[in-house]
Amino acid sequence: MTQFCQPDLDQDIDNPFIRDSADKLVRRSYWLDMNDRTLVMAMANGIGANLTNDEKRAHLSDSAENI
Q: Does position 66 have pLDDT exceeding 70, yes or no?
């Protein structure tokens, strides 16, 4: 089973990693609106910097599905 980042909803309800009950991204458009360079920077130095590589990989592959 793929392990996604599980943000604390009590801390940040607007977190772009939040998923619904069907395990789909709630704010998918947040990710799709980024160009490749911005996405890499966000995952390497920004909001994704504290994720494990496996979490980053799972998130990015899931975000790109059905494009």
A: no
